[in-house]
Amino acid sequence: xxxxxxxxxxxxxxxxxRILLEKKGHTVLAEAGNGVDAIQLIRTHEPQVLVLDLxxxxxxxxxxxxxxxxxxxxxxILILTASASxxxxxRCLKAGAAGFMSKDGELDEIANAVxxxxxxxxxxxxxxxxxxxxxxDSRTHSASSPLTNREITILxxxxxxxxxxxxxxxxxxxxxxxxxxxxxxxxxxxxTSLLELVEIVRRGNSI
Length: 207
Fold this sequence. Notes:
Blueprint: E1 3-7, H1 11-23, E2 27-32, H2 35-45, E3 49-52, H3 61-70, E4 76-81, H4 86-95, E5 99-102, H5 110-118, H6 126-133, H7 149-159, H8 164-171, H9 175-188, H10 194-204
Parallel strand pairs: 1-2, 1-3, 3-4, 4-5
Helix pairs in contact: 2-3, 4-6, 8-9
């Protein structure tokens, strides 16, 4: 069995994941509710598996992965997110994740996912791996140029109906910075309004 750190800003999700993993004999070393604390805990405990949400405050999950990649984190990363998009799963795969689970699925499967990662396997939706082997497809998103990790995080929050000030508070950035990102996203997707932007993204099922 393996050692695990859980990172999710919802305490109930952390409790559920801990119970499911400990029931299968895994050891949960620590929990964090934001990206900054997560990095510190990972440095301290060096878990074999990191269970990581993406929409977390202070430092989002994609940024946490980028930091861990640069610091040569030796453990495996299992993404546990509310997003079920295959395109987004592929982006996580490219960012260094070894597994991807949607919270909309069967959470009971998380113990099997962690065991798969400990065994040296990947745990992704089948279409993610298939398209990855084929080199992906040209419809990853409808933007005119690639999106940064921060742009994707803000776009996902906008699609959820979050206001600029809510996003600023969640990500610990200024309201003005959120507005700048929003304008940049509108240009990249050739959209004239937030409503049109959301419709374009949903139609493309890219986030």
